[in-house]
């Protein structure tokens, strides 16, 4: 992973984004020698956070009717 000062990143932003997309290697942008942000490639086909579990939950048809097995809720 390479590092780049913020001033240099500002002047070469589009070129750096193309390089990250092409090579997949992240670039860390620094200010005064301290890491501030990381430019990383987007994962193709990644699911959004909302809706990620869509279709993965099953639904029981009857949750109210008694079951055939006797049990005591207060038993240990």
Structure description:
With 76 residues, the protein is of the alpha+beta class. Helix content is 24%, strand content 20%. The protein has 1 helix and 3 strands, in the order βαββ. The chain starts with a strand and ends in a 37-residue tail after the last strand. The relative contact order is 0.15.
SSE blueprint:
Elements: E1 2-5, H1 6-23, E2 27-31, E3 34-39
Parallel strand pairs: 1-2
Antiparallel strand pairs: 2-3
Summarize the entry for a quick read.
The chain has 76 residues and is of the alpha+beta class.
Rounded to the nearest angstrom, the distance between the terminal CA atoms is 56 Å
Order of helices and strands: EHEE
Q: Which class best fits the helix and strand makeup?
A: alpha+beta
Beta-strand proportion: 15-25%
User: What is the CA-based Rg, rounded?
Assistant: 26 Å
Number of helices: 1
Shape: elongated
| Fraction of residues in helix | 10-25%
């Amino acid at each position: 992973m390479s590092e780049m000062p913020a001033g240099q990143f500002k002047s070469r932003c589009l070129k750096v984004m193309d390089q990250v997309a092409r090579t997949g290697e992240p670039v860390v942008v620094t200010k005064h020698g301290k890491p501030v942000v990381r430019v990383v490639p987007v994962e193709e086909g990644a699911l959004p956070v909302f809706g990620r579990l869509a279709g993965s939950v099953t639904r029981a048809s009857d949750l109210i009717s008694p079951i055939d097995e006797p049990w005591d809720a207060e038993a240990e």
